[in-house]
Amino acid sequence: MRHLAAQIQPLEYEAQVKYPGAPVSLDAPGGRTVRRLLQACARDELYRDWATSPELAERLRQLLGGKLELSQAHHNCIMTKNPAFSSATGWHQDIRYWSFQKPELVSVWLALGPEHEENGCLWLVPGSHRMEFLPDQFDGDRFFRTGLEQNRLVIDAKVAAELDEGDVLFFHCRLLHAAGRNRTALTKFAAVFTYHCADNLPLTGSRSALLPDIDVPLATRRR
Ligand SMILES: O=C(O)CCC(=O)C(=O)O
User: Fold this and answer.
1) Coil, strand or helix: which one is 95?
2) CA of 178 to the centre of ligand 1 (A)
3) This model's pTM is above 0.90
4) Shortest-distance atom of ligand 1 to CA 190
5) C-alpha–C-alpha distance, residues 91 and 218, integer Å
6) What per-residue confidence (pLDDT) applies to 222?
């Protein structure tokens, strides 16, 4: 909240993502509404410690296996959803903007307060990370096209990821998800981090390789 009030960079603004409902420019009313406080691990040890904690690492190991790395280039942020100027996020898979040897990454979403339909929680299509889609099921920005009948059938299986403060959601980078606007009076906050295995590297020269990964140690096993 302190970083948000002081607008401590690096930030991503609603006006920059240009999603439905976002202010039209940085100079428009609400133009400086923050969508993400970027580089969470560098903002405070609290975040880095949580994101690399043995409890989390053990659960990620069950999902990904192997030696774990936290990507500083993707997510690694505090998502903020401001009531007055928040935008809606269309159906997408997070892998759309990431470049790795394999589409095998898991994101961890920590609710810092309650998340429900009214304040713009995530919506998910369970199991969609295992489905195969054709390129033309997505638009030019790689959002899942909601006007297509075949896509509607997939989206009809959506569930709201309603969370209480402290709940953690783990989701695959191919999972279809979306989110609504915040229609309450309070800003919603969530910390989000993305992980991959050390044998699944970001492609050289891509945005995914811009920042060094952070090693996530596994807990020492007791005999
Ligand atoms: O909270 C939201 O609006 C959705 C965020 C999201 O889907 C993402 O960052 O990939």
Assistant:
1) helix
2) 7
3) yes
4) 1
5) 33
6) 53
